[in-house]
Amino acid sequence: MVEQVAKSEESRVVIEVWSDLVCPWCYIGTHRLKAAIAQRPDPDRFEIVMRSFELDPTASREPETIEKAFIRSHGGTADQFLRAERQVQAIARSEGLEFSLDRLSASTFDLHRVSQYAAGQGHGDEFFSRVQDGFFTGTLNPYDPRALAGVAESVGLDAQRVRDILANDEYADRVRIDRADGLELGATGVPFVVIDRRVAAPGAQKVSTYGQMLEQAAGPVLSERAS
Predict the structure, then answer these.
(1) Would you state the torsion angle of the CA atoms of residues 187, 193, 199, 201, taken in this order, to the nearest 10 degrees?
(2) Chain Cα centroid distance, residue 226
(3) Edge to edge, what strands does the sheet with 46-52 contain?
(4) 177: CB partners within 8 A, 6+ apart
(5) Tens digits of per-residue pLDDT, 164-203?
(6) What would the pLDDT profile of 66-113 be if each residue is shown by its tens digit?
(7) Which of 76, 106, 122, 199 could join 80 via S-S bond, C-beta 3.0 to 4.6 A?
(8) Residue-by-residue DSSP string for 19-73
(9) Are 108 and 54 in contact (CB under 8 A)?
(10) How is the chain classified by DSSP, letter by letter?
(11) What percent of the chain is predicted at pLDDT more than 70?
(12) Integer Cα distance of 48 and 34 in angstroms
């Protein structure tokens, strides 16, 4: 007969993802990470914890086009920016992800503050993912407090609590601490994925690479032993 035996302890594995809303590679990388988790026979072992990391702490608080924001921060021309965006769009679409070029850009600090509240309520990954997906598919303006409160309510959070947070400075320290922790661990940008504080990788890795990281941190799941 063939007996299934566990080779590794079936304990939970925490995956920390430093990310920012406006980062295209964060959007793609997070979906690749989740695809790698889904390919394992033990996906429920893994807990994704979203960590705050503002790519541009000096970003305007007033929404502007992503083209204007990019040129202001990085220089270059509108044509160069559009070519780069279309290249990323093609990669996203090849992986089954919608990618709108008609997006706005602004400071993401308030979004991160609300994400910290969502994380404390056990909905951090779900909330951030819905906001990020809506942003890149062009179906959500995350800089609209009403829209953000609506997403929060859709995942089981208190919409009024979100509006209150947006009206004050709650969770600001936690956002700054997350960014500082990421920098200390070696993050120079995002996405930055750390698995069980043992395995880390910068940038949007391939699904297979994330799979190797999961195995390195959690171990092979099952082996077949004849007896």
Answers:
(1) -60
(2) 42
(3) 46-52, 13-19, 192-195, 199-202
(4) none
(5) 999 999 999 999 999 999 999 999 999 999 999 999 999 9
(6) 999 989 888 999 999 999 999 999 999 999 999 999 999 999 999 999
(7) 76
(8) E-TT-HHHHHHHHHHHHHHHTSS-GGGEEEEEEE--S-TT--SS-EEHHHHHHHH
(9) yes
(10) -EEEEESS----EEEEEEE-TT-HHHHHHHHHHHHHHHTSS-GGGEEEEEEE--S-TT--SS-EEHHHHHHHHH---HHHHHHHHHHHHHHHHHTT----S--EE---HHHHHHHHHHHHTT-HHHHHHHHHHHHHHT---TTSHHHHHHHHHHTT--HHHHHHHHTS-TTHHHHHHHHHHHHHHT-SSS-EEEETTTEEEES---HHHHHHHHHHHH---EEEEE-
(11) 93
(12) 9
Q: Is residue 97 a contact partner of residue 28, using CB atoms and an 8 Å limit?
A: yes
Q: Do 106 and 130 form a contact (C-beta atoms < 8 A)?
A: no
Q: Which residue has tokens 């079936």?
A: 10
Q: Report the phi/psi class of residue 126: left, alpha or beta, with left for phi > 0 and alpha for psi in -120 to 50.
A: alpha
User: In sequence order, what are the beta bridge partners of 105?
Assistant: 64
